[in-house]
Structures are given as structure tokens and as C-alpha cells.
Protein 1
Amino acid sequence: MIINSKGVNLDGNVVADFHRHGVWAKSASALTINNNWVFHVVDSVTDAPVMRSYHGWLGGFTLSESVSTSTVTGNVVAGTWHHGFHVVPQACDDANPDFLFTNNVAHSISGYGAVALNVE
């Protein structure tokens, strides 16, 4: 978990066989999350998995809880519950976004490959 942090660089790591979250950032900024693999992140270690049954926002990369000015590129996530990526979207008219999300891959996800935070 990356919490209340600024300037963290997470590059070239493998996160496997975890419970609830793979990479979770909260109240953070200026993150660089590049070229990481996250796989097999389950929502329960005691119950058998049930497709499309979710217990909250659990997933591979959860990067949407008060996270800003970040770059997320070239990551792969597989075998997670609810989402592969949960991120802050770029506004349609924003020529200089503070959250860059490119060239990421999500596959074999029970729920959604990528979810954009509902922002106004």
C-alpha cells in the first residue's frame, strides 16, 4: 500500500498471490508505476471464488483514492477480482493531464479490465 506519499517510483516488480489488492495507492501524488506485473489477487482466502461477486473495490491496481499527478504505463494485471485497474480519468478537454494511463494490459479479470473514477 502506498499511502500519504509523494514521488514513489514502482518499476519492474512482480506482485503475485495476494489477498484483496495488488498495488493500492491512497492519498498520494507524483507516482510513477511502470512495467509491473500483478496477478492472482483474490477477494477471499477462505471462500471459493464466485465470478461476478464482489466485496468492495478490490483488484490489481487501485490508484483512484485521492491520487494525482501520476504516470501508469506498461503494466500487466491478470487473475484479479472486480478490476484490473481503477484509475483517475483524463478530462476530455484536458491537453495536459496530471494522470497519464497508457499501454497497460488487463486480462482474465472476474469483473472489469479498467474502471475510471467518476469525477466531475
Protein 2
Amino acid sequence: MLKFPIGAIIKTAWRWTRENMRLWWLGFFVTLGGFFMFNLQDWVNYFMNATGKSIWINLVLIFSSAPDAAQLIVTILVMVLFLLVFFWAKAALLQGLLDVKSGDRQSFKQLLRFGWHRVAQLLLLEVFLSLPNIVLLTLVGLGFYFSTILFFVAIILFFLYNGFIFLFRHFAYCDSVFTQTTAWAAVKSGYKLFIANWRAALLSWLVFAGLAFGIGFITLIALVLLLIPLVFIVLTLFLAFGMNYILLTVATIICLVILLCFLICCQAAISVFFVSYTTQVYWELKK
């Protein structure tokens, strides 16, 4: 029977999240950078499929128009910037969690400095993991024009491959940050750790999915509960003062700011919790 201290890991992750609120800033930037990182392909596809023609024809058409070319270049640069932010914050957060585990306490500035020094390796690590996607997406494109079977096979392989690397990607990140090894060595180490402990790792990811669903549901309920009194306040002002645009605008802005602050705090804390959870799974598997 598989014995893995999931309960203890969850409790520790929650305690570390509550007791180390300074890491929430890093959690926020991990979330922000991660959102743009994982939507980079969608943004690029938007430009690449703008005319309904092949990728190369789209590129020629885009770069033949200065405004379209400038828009594409700016979009990619912004995405790359947030990609760097993601890796910077991720490395700094992992180091912060290592400090919590070891009882050390580096300054926030020191964590940022350490994170910046690991950006290049984490970026290279992601490049290694993403290289097969280039081949698979090329096959998807070829299959779309020349072979339906090739198209669907490539699509299936694409999702299977990305699902598989998801299972050990964080382990590779941890190995890169904690041992400061090379990107390729971290990829191999993360892969071997997952293969050697695949049952415990799969269990931890199933629990991760359950936690994500539960926490997301609780956050949604909390958001609705917060939204109800804010809407009530705006409606009360409207009934009391009528269409006073200045007053209603100020009240609406204040309510939106409150909601935004609530969402930022929630997402920052949730990000720290899940990074802490998956990192402690890594440490447990390394024992």
C-alpha cells in the first residue's frame, strides 16, 4: 500500500503560506508571469491565423504592414518580459521556501537577486522541454494541409507530451534552483525523480487537482459574498442621490479597487500555497 504524507504536506504548505506573507508578492508575480507565459502561444496564433492562410504567408503579410508588424513585435516583447518575470519570481519563491525550511531568512532583496541569477537556467530548461512541441506543432500544421490522420495523431501526441512534462516540470525547476545545476541536468533529474516515484507523484498531482478545484470554489464564494455588499452600497447611493455621476463613479471605482485587491491577495496566497505544496512533494520524493 502506498504511504505518502499528503496530509502533513498540505498542513505544512498552509502554515508556511500563512506565516510568510512577504512571499505573497513573489506568488503574485508567479501568477502574473505564468498567465502570460501559458497564453503566449495563443497570442502568436492570433497573428499567425489572422488571414486564414499558412503561417509563412501570414508572416509575409504581417511584416508587409508596418502597424501589424509593430503590433506583433510589441506583443512578443511584452510576453517575453512577463516570461522573464515568471522565472525570476519562481526562482526567488523557491529559494524563499528553502529558507523557511532551513530556518534562514534572507532579505527580500537577496531573494530577488538570487532569482535573477537563475532566470537564464530556468528559461533554458523550458526551452529544452518545449523543443518537441515545435516538431509536433509543425506536424499539426502539415497534417492540417496534407493528412487528416497526421493532424489528429500530432494533436494527440502534443497533448500527451505536454501532460507528461507537466508531471515533472516543477521537480526540474526545484532541482535547478536548489542544486544550481545546469538546465539539462535539472530536466533529467526531474524526469528520473518522477519515474522512480511515479505512483506517489501521480497521487500528489491528483490531490493538487482536488485542492485547486476546492480552493477555486471557496474563492468564488468569497468573491460573491464580498460583491453583494459592494453592489448594495452602490445601489443605496443611487437610490439616495439619484444619477449623481461623480458620486456613483467614485463609489464604483472604490468597489472595483477593493475587489481587485481581494483577488490579488487571494491569488498571491494561492500561488504560494501550491508552489509550497509541490515543492514539499519534491523534497519528500527526494528522501
Protein 3
Amino acid sequence: MVTESRETPHGRYTRDAAKHAFFAAIVERCADEVAAAVGERHAAAVFLIGAPSRGEATVVETSSGLHSLSDVDLVCIVSPGADLAASREAARQAVARLNPEIAPLCTGVDVSVRPCERAGRPTPLIAHYELARSPMLVRGDAAARDALGQVDIHDIPPSDALRFVHNRCIERLLAGGAGVGNAAACGEIVTLRAQYTTAKLMLDLVTAFLFVRREVPLGYEDRVRLFVTLCRTREQFRALAQEVAPFLDELPHWARFKTTGDWRALREALPEDALAGLRAPRFAFALWRRVLGETLGTDLFGATLPEAIARLAEAEGPARSLARSWKALRSADARSLFPATAVLRGALRGSPVPRAYITGLLLFFADAGGAPREWTRTALARYAPFALPADAPALTDDAMRQALLPPLARFHREVLLGRRPEDGGTGTGAATD
């Protein structure tokens, strides 16, 4: 049974009644399966988080019927005394069973399992702030919702907003260019998912910017409205407004698509290059530099891609980089993703995870950042923490890209989403819609 969230007035996943009922059935099926796997005695509550908990699930009409582009992102709170490791393994297995079953209806399901004591004392992160702000209780007692600890938005470090931006940029990079052209030619759902990934990128860039400002309205449409107003009326954002001016009129259309699933209206409103995501890196580059500057305590307006990447790479510091690199070398899981030779090759330039982020950013911003292609190829060979051909610096742009995208996709799946390969692309990560 779906109950009301703190800030979603009627417990609706989306405005349209039929789409709500469709998504609600998927959510309840997933929550029941997870609770049963963890054990009714231990599963104190199951929450839905992310945009659907705010009434912004993206459910689209296709030639085959309704389909949810939004993930079902669940948080299972386990009671005191529960074996946390066993509960997480049970949830992982439940997710592995569920994803193939719901694939025709929904992008997927993820579950994060947390002990109740941690839920009451959340760390100041964007994901925890959003959970505490609008948790949709799917299973359990309302007291579990009331017991969730609050997060003060002023305690969330800018670095979390930066990580948020990095993750979205990599997601859009991996989605490729399927968001344009004849839907029948590349697959209707593939096309819609690519456009959905662009919408998430554009809207979450706005969200990250607002988190840095400590002023984040609840819904995407209100967030876009505030961002556009700030750009057009505040002197302090004049330079930013000049960079993002071509995109300000597009943002409301992306927000409407994200919150209603009306892809026909989106395609009528936006040009083909916007639908394909080809314009998104330019918007992202402007917002990324702004959030990076706030994180590092410096002004990066006008910085080139080489300058901004250099500042990002320096942020970790040699001592921390060496310590983290040594830790990665001692981990069998890390070594399977980051070969020892690649870790050692760049240990002074950064540990594997920051270097993987940089690799994704270099590929994503290759055209938008205005950097010479020769510099980009050299930088990729310098920073990539993955196995590369011996002649990597001499590879063509396309060959370098093709060599790096598979390990980057694995990095995104296993490290950023917390998903293990044996899950078939599913797991117990903490990614939010």
C-alpha cells in the first residue's frame, strides 16, 4: 500500500492516474520481493526514493504500452540485530531475480540496505537529504518514516554536488547518441532512454548548482524556474548566464518530459541536436566548472578544459593519492578493474577512482571544452586507470574512445552504482533517479 511522503501531498508517483497505477504496481512488486528476501522480521521499512517519491516518475507511452524510464530505487531499513551482510546479500539476490522480470516494463530496480541506527543519523549527502525530505513509504510502519534523521542542506559539502555532476556526465557519455532520428531504426525504448538520460543530466546539473547555493526547491520544474530566474536577474550570475543562455528556454521542456513522460511534446519543442544530447556537453561544461570552482574555493569561469582538469587532478594531493592507490593495489576487486600497472603508472597524479572520473570527463567534454585533440588523447593516456594498448597516444580519437568506454562502463556499474558483474547489471547500489 502506498502511503504519503512528507512533501508529496497525495502519495502519487506521477500526475497521470493510469501511469501512477502502472508504476505503483511495479514498486509494490519489487518492495514485496525485497522484504520477503530480507525477512519480514528484519525488514522494518521499505522506502522509494528519487524523483518518483516526489511525484515525478517518468512513465512513457510506447507502441507496446506503458514503460517506466525511471528506476525503482528502494531503501530497505533493517531492524536492530539483523545481520547486515546477510540482509544485503538477500536483497542483491532479490534484485538479480527482479530485473529480468520487470525489464519489459521498467528500466530496473536498485536496493540500498541500511541499519535503522544509520537511517536515524544520516551523513550529510544529497541522496540522504532527498530521502529524508520526501521518503515514500511503501512497506512498514509510518513510525519508520518519522524516525528518519534529517540532513541540514548547509552541511552538504560542495564535493558531493561535484560527484553528482560527474556521475551524470558519465551516464550520458555511456548512453551514446541514440536519442535522435527514427525511433524504429535504433529501437523505440533505446531512443527514449537516451533522451531520458539527457533530461537527467540537464536537470541534475541545475540541481547540483542549487545545492551549492543551499536553495533547492522540491520538484524539477520549480528548480528549473529558480535557476532560469537567477541567471536572468542576478548580477552575480551574469557570466554564467551568458554561457548557458542558449539552453535556458530548453530546460522547462526537459523538466516537463521528466515529470510527465510526454516525449511527443519534447520532440515538437526541441531541435534534433538537443534531442540527441549533442548540445548537452556545452551546458554541462559551464555548470561543471561552476560547481568545481565552489568545491575547490576558486573561480574557474573561463577556464579551459586543460586548466580545469589540472585543478581537479591536483585536489586529491600526492600523499592521499599514493595511500589510496596502495589500498587499491591490495584489493582484489579493485585490481580486477584497475590493473596494477595502470595504478602505478599514475599514482602521483591521482588514485584510480578520481582518475576514472577524469577519464570520463575528458571523453564527455572532448568537443565542448575547446581543448586540442592531441592534448585530449595525451591526457587520456596519462590519466586513465584502465588497461590501454601500448600505442595509446597514437590511437585515433575513435579508437581511444572505443578502448576506454567498456572499462568506464564497468567502473560506472560496479563503483558508482555499487553493482557487481554477477548481478547482470543489477545490485544494491545507492544511485538515485
Protein 4
Amino acid sequence: MPPLRCEPAGLWLPQRASDLVVPCEHGLLGPNLLTNGHGEYGDTTGWTTGFTWAGSGGANGDACFRVGTTIVLSQKTFPLNPLTDSLYGAIWDRRDEDTSRPLYAGVACVSAYGEIIRPAMCHRLQNTHCTLFENYTAGSTTMKVTPPANDVSGLSALAIQANISSDDLDLPVMAAQMQYVTSVTKNVDHWVLTLSSGLSQSYSAGTLCAFSQSGDSYTYFLGSGITPPLTWEKRVATILPGVNDRYTAPVSNQYRRGTVAVRFVCFTSGGSGSYNTHIDGMELRRIY
């Protein structure tokens, strides 16, 4: 089922009205959760570093933000129940002629540990349980494990999760328990994994592990790799209740397993030219 599109009656809801509850096709949109989503403070208040302030040229004729390749997150985190809560998101964007950097926008899913949940933390490849073949020392980029029942050595973007539960109900794992695998060397009785970076803890031989796969760092429900037009365009989308299955990686319009809160995120990546991608009218609202 595609994400719902909830569009308020007006084409653009100015910030002075964004604290109002407004009707949409699928119910009511609550107040905008974002601080300074429309640039009403006249600066970058409410956002992490990455935005610069443009004094003019906004979507409604006033000012706007400019964004580059530095990831921008809302400073506030918004609690929610992923099994019952729907979210509406909106963003206006445009680019200058010398810019072709793709835009990414959506939310970062946050766990009960306060960590941003990466895909490799919230799902597990089925039948890939294994154990440490020998003791693992914190910081080492080499790990030896027994071969899993499901041979996933040929898959791309592999990750290893350490010190897990046998019932797979521990997801998402903490970031300290997970690391990306850059290569696998298979022996008869064990695999040798090369890790992109060492884990922060040591584990003894026999510790239960399993494999997962990496993916998009964030939930890009408002756009993933899109090239903004030369004139302002508004994008709206929703995230519906539900989380990814334990054995399936999350998709772009889905909360990640273990989500207890979200933060708004946007940035550009790749492409060429200046960083003059313009952003305005960012909204994150609950649907009632």
C-alpha cells in the first residue's frame, strides 16, 4: 500500500498558522512539531549544523535555508508509538542552475538507547546465527565465527551483530554490538571476517552472533536521491503505523523496529556544483 498523501486545503501553510490543527483528506493534521521549520526565526535555530541562512528567495517570497552535504537534523526528538502513530511530512525545495546534488529528506528513527537506528541494527538475516570461533578483542578488525546455516558470504553490504539473543527478539541491537563486514574468508570450520572498524567490547569464544545487511541510514519518506527543480516544489508524504519484520530490512516509508522517537533529517549528496539547494516549509505533523 502506498503512503497516504495528506494535503491541507491551501497549497502552503505559513508558519504563523502551523500551530493550528488543520483538516486533510485522511483526518486531522496536528501542529507542526518542528521548531523553525519555515525559517520564522530568521536564522538556523532548531537545527544542527548543516543549514545556512538565505536572506531572500523563500517559497512564499521571504527567506529560506540552504543545505549542502552536511547532514541536518532537528535538534528536537519527537516521541511516538510506531504501532499506532502516523506522521505527515512536508518540505519545499529548489536548486540553482549550477547544482545537481540529489536531495534526501525524511526522519531518523531513534531507539530507546537514544541511538539512530541503522538498518543493520533492526533486522537479522534468517538462519545466520553463529558463534565466535575464538575470543574477540575490542578494537580488532578481525573476527572469527562458526559458519552459519545460511551461507550469506556472497551478499553485499553485510554486517555482523554480536552478543545477541537466540529468539531474535532483541532487535534493534545497540550500535556498539554491530559492525560492517568488508570481506569474508571461508574455512571448513570457521569464517574470518574483516570489519570496517573494531567493536568497542571484547567477547569470549561461543558468544552468539548473526548477520544483517546495511542500507539507507535514515527513513527517506519525503525523498531519496531526488534532484530538486529550478523552481519551488512542495513534497508531502506520510509514514503509516508498523515496523519492519525481524527478518526484513526496513523500507523508506516505514518505522524501524525499536523506534520510540524520530528526528527530521535532510541533506544533499553526490552530484556536482555548489551547495545552493534551497529548503523551506519543513513540517512534521501527527495525523489524528
